[in-house]
Structure formats: C-alpha cells, structure tokens
Amino acid sequence: MRDPAGTVPTIGVEEEFFLVDPDSRLIVPAGPAVAARAAGYAGDRATQEFALCQVEGRTRPCRSASELRLELEQVRGALVAAARAEGVRLCASGTAVLQEAGPVQVAEHPRYRAGRLQYRSMMDDFAVSALHVHVHLPDRELAVRTANHLRPWLPLLIAATANSPYHRGLDTGYASWRTVIRHRFPCLGPPPYAASWQEHERLAVTIAGTEAMLDARTPFWDLRPNPRLPTLEVRAMDVLQDLDDTVAFAVLLRALVRTAAARGRAGDPGPRWEAEVLRAACWRAARDGWSGDAFHPATGRSRPVADIAGELVDLVRPALEEAGDLHEATGLFDRLAERGDGATRQRACAAAGAGPAAVVDRLVAATARGTGGGGVSGRPEW
C-alpha cells in the first residue's frame, strides 16, 4: 500500500486523565497546578482541561510505534511526576470512579462559560477522559470521504476501549459510561454522512444554528477533520489504562485511515449508514463492551466484538505490515481476549472485595506503569 507522498503518515495522541486524592480517592481540582508543573518537563505537551479535576497529555507527531511509545512515556511520566509533587495522583479512567456530590468545577475560559450557558445542567457532570488519535491527512475533501468509511467502525472502537463502568461511586451497568454522558449532547457522537467538505461545513453551520453545537468551526463529533491540524481525528475512545494499548490503537487507526483513504482516492464515497443507526449501535457498544456483540460495519447485523476485530485486522493488514505494526494490532486483541476491556478489569478489582477505592488504586498504578521516560530527539512535522 503506497500513499501519494510515498511515506507512512504520522500519528499523534491526546490522553485525558483525572486527578485523585491518594487518601479519599475522590477527584480533586488540581488540574491547573499539575499542568503548570508538568509543562516544566513536557512543555506544551501537558495542559489543563475543561474540568479542573483533569489534565491532558499530547504527543508530538510520530512516524513509528516505537517513537510514539517513547513520547507517551515521556508525557505520561511528566504528568505522573507533577501530580505526585502536587500531592495527587494521575488516573486513566473514562469517568470518575469516586466524586463528591455537586457540579464539576470548570476552568475560567470563554468557551467553557459559553458551554455552561448553552447546555446548562447538562454540564454538571461533564467530566470525561478520552483518547484522541490524529492521523496526518491534510486533504479536507479526502478526509471527509475517509471519515465516511470510518463511521461504521465507531461501535467497535467504543467496545474495545471501554474503560468507564463507574460514575460517582456506582456501577452504571455500562462498559463505557463516558460514551453515554457524551451522547446526551445533540452535537456529540457519530458525525453525519457528508458527500463533500462543503457539505460537512454546511451541516456543522446548520447544527450550530440550532444552538446544539457551540461553534461550527469546532465540531466535537467522534470523528472529524481536525479544525486546526492537518489530521483526521478519532475521538470515540475512552482513555486507556495501559500505555501499550494506547500505542496499539493508534497504529491500528492509522492503518484503518490509510485503507479508507485509498478507497476514497479511488472514488468510493463510503457506506451511507444513517446517523441514527450508528448512534444506536454506539449505545449498545457502550453498554456491553468487548465481551458483547456489536454492529457489523458491512451488514449492520450483530456479531461478537472479537470477530469484528479480527475482520478489521484482516482489512487493514497490508497497511499494518507496511508500517511494521502488525504485531502491535494482533498483540492488542490477544490481550483483550485474555483479560477483557478496561471496564471488565475495573469490575474484577471491585469484586475482589475492596470496592471502588481499590479500583482507583489499581487505575493509578496502571496509569503510571511504563512511564520511566526516555526522550524523543527532534520534532517531526505533520
């Protein structure tokens, strides 16, 4: 498989984390202090988030899985160290396991204030931590056609990365409660099908006109051409506990984007699955996670998630092999088959007898594992 430029596109990752008190295990509003301290180690790759109980780590664009792993080690490591220095801990879970009653405290920022005014009480518990993956794809027309091919894979991505069964101390019965919180908003979830970049922009402007979206220039769909970077951004996934899983999902998505982009270049506009169908399929994936059945991207019928994952690897195998990433993808799904998704592991920890507090402790340990560091020389460009 050859891209027009003759190179494998770069990838980048954003990870959002909660900050928790090591004694109470409650989330705490330490984000500004932790982000400022971590910036001393990681520069602008460490930043605060919408909610004061969160921080975000961003990698630079990377050309290989090994380079991405080093970046993640460095950025996660900076956040882990900064959190400890501020007397708190970094926690990779899609929702807060333990949280005091009352609205989430948010940063003083014009966009955040606008969100509070527009969505009102819907924002009270809007503190969720995601994994975002960027794949270099500067052609906006091609990015829209590529996104059309990726849309029906969103349920699989949600199921395989599910890592948020708890919310405010309660088991929600869902594998990804983060997805449920996000999909309450009319402007979040699977993007609408668009035949062109012009139609994509028209849809965003029309939806923003209803006030269901804050800004047409910055749609928050689960899949989008990034408004500021020359990338296609996939935003559907819960943040993952294990750094190796994050690397594997990133290179798997790069292979899927390359495969879909090749079809787009050949004139294939992508399957026209209705947004309502995909939204329903994403809901089921959020409920059942890796161990359940999910929407099949080609037929729409329910199939075991593990079977659909195997078909995905077969589909993108040429792109994985060319980039040297096949072992990353197969290793990821082997691990999921052996231990289950993050939600399964969180519940198993709670069931061992110590409850949600032990879940937080396990998540904190998993988040810090493998963050010994190791620098990345230079800065590749998108």
UniProtKB/TrEMBL annotation:
It comes from the Bacteria. The keyword Nucleotide-binding applies. Keywords: ATP-binding, Ligase, Nucleotide-binding. It is an enzyme of class 6 (ligase). Its EC number is 6.3.2.2. GO terms for molecular function: glutamate-cysteine ligase activity. It holds the Pfam family GCS2. Belongs to the glutamate--cysteine ligase type 2 family. YbdK subfamily. This is Putative glutamate--cysteine ligase 2.
